[in-house]
Write a structure and sequence with these properties.
By secondary structure, this protein is of the alpha+beta class. It folds into 2 domains: 118 residues, ApbE-like domains (T-fold, Roll), CATH 3.10.520.10; 135 residues, ApbE-like domains (T-fold, Roll). Helices cover 34% and strands 24% of the residues. The strands form 5 sheets. A 6-stranded antiparallel β-sheet has the order 4-5-10-13-14-15. A hairpin with a 2-residue loop joins strand 6 and strand 7. Helix 1 runs antiparallel to helix 7 and helix 7 packs antiparallel against helix 8.
Length: 278
């Protein structure tokens, strides 16, 4: 049935792309791709290539090789890694360290110690795939919600769906209600430091890492991106958070991808909207 088809497809995406599953293709790449070309399914290779392209257009704020530094935030336990420790790994971060040959279906690393993590694109990819399954079954009106990322299609009854951007600090409070109208499906991705974070020596750190510095991006409390493709908005939500709400970059994304972006900064609790005047 439809529900089991959707579940099995999402499970397949997780099985292929999980950084933490030792049997996933991502884990195999991270283990072996410096020593040899690792064979992967074409769709995994294409997603890595898309990630490489998205890294270029986000000026490196979305970069799947961030994990080459980000791993230090997993290993250090109670003590945050120092700037010196992070800087030693600078050469390992950057898409130029990966060769994904999708004709052959292989991935190779050019430096020892490079690690990738597709967590910033995998949810959007899973949602887009699920949306295709729904459409092939003749469904036009539905919402797919996967860990806070959504694909919103059509209507509920005779009205368009309404989706709320919630206040991270107040249960039940909605900061913004979004009502996507029109025939096209809309992707909605939210990224933030309020549900997933780490604590070192009493200080709270975001789980989102700035690929340039290797430091957690703590300024963005919540970022929501709305656009016509679930993969694109997933990537941009990560990139905006990792940029520490760089306004110039946000405006570039709005213009280039025709998206709407809502940001809530930590500390001052400032809410901003971009691209909503269109």
């Amino acid at each position: 049935d439809l529900e089991s088809s959707l579940k099995s497809d999402v499970n397949e995406v997780e099985r292929y792309l999980s950084y933490f599953d030792e049997k996933s293709f991502v884990s195999e790449i991270n283990r072996d791709a410096f020593k040899k070309e690792v064979e992967v399914p074409k769709e995994v290779c294409r997603l890595i290539n898309l990630s490489i392209r998205m890294s270029s257009v986000t000026e490196g704020k979305f970069d799947i090789t961030y994990k080459s530094k980000g791993k230090l935030w997993e290993k250090n336990g109670d003590k945050a890694p120092s700037k010196e420790e992070l800087d030693k790994l600078n050469d390992l971060v950057g898409i130029e360290n990966i060769v994904a040959d999708c004709e052959k279906g292989t991935v190779k690393y050019l430096k020892k110690g490079v690690l990738i993590d597709l967590g910033g694109i995998a949810k959007g990819y899973a949602i887009e795939r699920a949306g295709e399954i729904m459409k092939k079954r003749g469904k036009e009106n539905f919402i797919i919600n996967y860990g806070g990322d959504m694909l919103v299609c059509g209507k509920k009854g005779d009205k368009y769906w309404s989706v709320g951007v919630r206040d991270p600090d107040t249960a039940g409070k909605v900061l913004k209600t979004i009502t996507p109208e029109g025939e096209r499906c809309i992707g909605i991705a939210t990224s933030g430091n309020y549900e997933r974070f780490k604590v070192y020596e009493g200080a709270v750190y975001s789980h989102i890492i700035d690929p340039d510095s290797g430091m957690p991006a703590n300024i963005a409390k919540s970022v929501t991106v709305i656009g016509e493709n679930a993969v694109t908005v997933d990537v941009l939500a990560t990139a905006v958070s990792a940029s520490n709400l760089d306004e110039q970059l946000i405006k570039k994304f709005v213009d280039k991808f025709s998206v709407k972006i809502y940001t809530l900064s930590d500390g001052g609790y400032v809410w901003k909207e971009y691209g909503t005047e269109k």
